[in-house]
Design brief:
The chain has about 325 residues and is α/β, with parallel strands linked by helices. The chain has 2 domains: about 10-165 and about 320-330, Glucose-6-phosphate isomerase like protein, domain 1 (Rossmann fold), CATH 3.40.50; about 165-305, Rossmann fold (3-Layer(aba) Sandwich), CATH 3.40.50. The chain has helices spanning about 10-35, 50-60, 70-75, 95-105, 120-125, 145-155, 165-180, 195-210, 220-225, 255-265, 280-305, 315, 320-330; strands at about 45, 65-70, 85-90, 110-115, 130, 185-190, 215-220, 240-245, 270. The strands form 2 sheets. Strands 2-1-3-4-5 form a 5-stranded parallel beta sheet. A 4-stranded parallel beta sheet has the order 7-6-8-9, sandwiched between helices. Helix 1 runs parallel beside helix 6 (about 145-155).
Length: about 325
């Protein structure tokens, strides 16, 4: 299966592959900004969708010292932002809930910063400062790929230096891995813990966007208590087929390996998602987060092509897309 000639997905493929240059150049840009390292206990991250997945990642990246909030919840509990530096993650800068939350905490937060690609957006103008996102953007709507990894770098740079990344190598290995997958399932489960739990949220989001199938995300320990009992679908004659994708918190993590082995033994299709980098330093965790993100992007793309879609599923569901736009974005 070649991705190079997949009409309807050209823009998405271009953006995924652009990360080879985008992430290196953006790392240099962030370094030039000379961002002062933040006290994680004085920070809060707010975002929805992919941006919420990024917020969950950075919360765990810094040992739960920062807080991660959905913007509607921050609006409901504004005191959580008291005396905090609040970072609102929104690629477009047009998400109503983020704008409303930023206004709500104006007199509570020490500082409000928009992380966005659009410095002229309503969110950027509402906040006190911005960190501008930079990445290759094709015309038209696409699933969030290089925009997400740019957000991960921007948030991580507040606490840690960005390591040298072999993005070309990651892209090459991820594409090959995804091309060899046989994805015949009805329900996708993403399982992981620690800093990579947020990336399970991201993985589920890519399945929603690329193929519109049922998908879920769960902590490794909680999966064995809860989601495990939904597998198989043998009740009432159902033939539901589940696919499990496990993100290990460490390369040789025993809990994840045991879960994978036991599921496989019972005939459940389980995959240990590969990643680059080893160890548990911040640099190594950040490298693996970028690696996992790219593998999940290619997973979504491969699933869509194997399903026979002409373009990402969310673009085919025009009525649902209209509802989403109406609820999420400012109306011009």
């Amino acid at each position: 299966m070649s991705f190079s000639f997949s009409k309807g997905f050209e823009s998405t493929i271009k953006e995924i592959r652009a990360q080879a240059e985008d992430l290196i150049e953006y790392s240099k840009y962030l370094k030039r900004l000379g961002i002062k390292k933040q006290n994680p206990e004085e920070t809060l991250f707010c975002g929805a969708g992919d941006s919420y997945a990024c917020a969950l990642f950075v919360e765990r990246f810094e040992n739960f010292k920062p807080r991660a909030f959905d913007p509607a919840e921050l609006f409901q509990y504004p005191q959580a932002a008291k005396d905090k530096n609040v970072y609102f993650i929104s690629v477009s800068g047009r998400t109503k809930a983020n704008i409303e939350a930023a206004r709500r905490v104006r007199n509570l937060a020490s500082r409000r910063v928009a992380i966005t690609v659009n410095p002229e957006s309503s969110l950027a103008k509402t906040c006190d400062d911005i960190i501008e996102l930079k990445f290759t953007k094709s015309q038209g709507l696409t699933p969030g790929t290089n925009s997400f990894t740019a957000c991960v770098l921007a948030c991580s740079a507040l606490f840690s230096d960005i390591p040298r990344l072999d993005v070309r190598g990651i892209l090459r290995r991820a594409e090959l891995w995804s091309q060899n997958l046989k994805l015949k399932g009805d329900y996708y489960h993403f399982v992981g813990s620690g800093p990579f739990y947020g990336l399970c949220v991201y993985g589920a989001a890519k399945i929603f966007e690329f193929i519109g199938f049922h998908s879920s995300y769960q902590l490794t320990e909680e999966f064995s208590h809860l989601d495990l009992f939904s597998l198989g679908g043998k009740r009432n004659g159902s033939k539901k087929k589940d696919l499990i994708f496990i993100l290990r918190s460490e390369p040789k993590e025993e809990r994840s390996r045991e879960l994978h082995d036991l599921l496989s033994k019972e005939g459940v299709e389980s995959f240990l998602v590969p990643s680059s980098g080893r160890g548990s330093t911040q640099s190594e965790i950040l490298e693996r987060s970028i690696s996992y993100s790219i593998y999940l992007q290619y997973l979504g793309l491969s699933a869509a092509l194997q399903t026979g879609l002409s373009k990402p599923s969310f673009l085919l569901e025009k009525s649902l897309l209209r509802i989403s736009d109406r609820l999420i974005y400012e109306q011009s």
